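INFO  loader      accepted 1 record
INFO  loader      residues=208
INFO  predictor   begin
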Amino acid sequence: VLFDLDGTLWDATPAISLSWNRVLSRHPEVSRAPITVPEVRSTMGMLLPDIARKLFPGQPEEVRAILSAEHNGEMHRLLSAEGGTLYPKLAETLEVLSRAARLFLVSNCGDGYLAAFYAAHGLKPYFTGDLTAGRTGRPKAENIAQVVRGYGLARPVYVGDTALDCQSARQAGVPFLHAAYGFGQVEGVPAAARFEDIPAALAAMSPP
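INFO  predictor   done
INFO  writer      dumping tokens
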């Protein structure tokens, strides 16, 4: 089972918005209103350069790059120390799933973000492996496919919360399970209304 991170395993948007606003407080020359949690949620799953373009459309690319670099460091410090909000019964459900399948993380985040998730919540032992856009510089579909090939997975499923997750899984030739409790809406696919419902939803997707 391959998992997305944001909107699938945790909600880190309050810390992410706080990080952006701390960076903005150091750059009075960048004029914009404080960044809100709903704004951050609207960028979940996007690559950082695309997030910066959306949040700072009037700024030149070099300014966006500076803001993004500062935000990365600030965000990783915040999340490593305080973590995000894990979805209910996450650890217990990962424990159940790990008894029956190997678990992986495939995210568009940077490796520092993934390390912060592990450091804050101690969940790394549940995962056989992980791959991020920050590590490979490639889109999620290619990273999903690489994990499937690299580990020789015979019946993989990708679990994510957004339409981009669904599209990426399909491009990689992998079945998709929608984390319907997360940030996005996806119609016409198998779904889990709560994280704890994922084992039953996966079982329903399996061939008899």
